[in-house]
Amino acid sequence: MRVVVTLSYNGTHYLGSQIQKKFQNTIFGLFEKVLLELGIQQRVMPSGRTDKGVHATGQVCHFDLPPYWSDIKKLKRVLNLMLPSSIQVKKVTYVSDDFHARYSAKKRVYRYIIKEGMLTPFEADFVTSISQEVNMQNLNQKMQFFVGEHDFKHFKKNGSDEKSTIRIIYKAFAYKHKGYIILNFEANGFLRSQIRMMVGALLQLNEKELKEKLTDKNHKVDLAPPNGLYLAKIKY
To answer: What angle do CA 192, 196, 201 make, to 5 degrees?
Structure first.
């Protein structure tokens, strides 16, 4: 039987989520290791990957269970006992055999968290600090440039192996919550480091430069740090 697992994790001390041959210190590398200890030898298929230092509150993966693991409530409990506290299984549910965590996904939601001013030691791994004051009205106006279907060829990290750089962004908006600025992005998919590049562009470019970067002129911007980025939800 195929199951889908929803995970949350603190990505601070991991080399990203994707399984790597040379490194064990990845989210799904560790998750697969725990599954093997439970006699589950099927490969884990995630909805997508997150970079080093990026977090998740709603990452999704699927794999096939052997017949003797029919109690998925027990499976969830055991996984949470065996996984480190930085990784938590939020939900385990049965799905049809044709479900695929990546290819069945319709939309992906990410959030980026910013604080104006100095961070406390307890925020440093989870929030990005900026020195300047943010004009929320202007920020939201600029975020609307991203909405719709665009070629995001200038909003990806080098080394991306995607066949197409065209993506559809359904929603992009920002709001303040308890002293933090939350940037919300919802799309059919994102390129490698696309959101960090978009956040960097929003903070570093004016409206004219941002429009140019979306069309034909590639203004150089620095990637926003990974610690403020969260994979929030996968919609099916």
So the answer is: 120
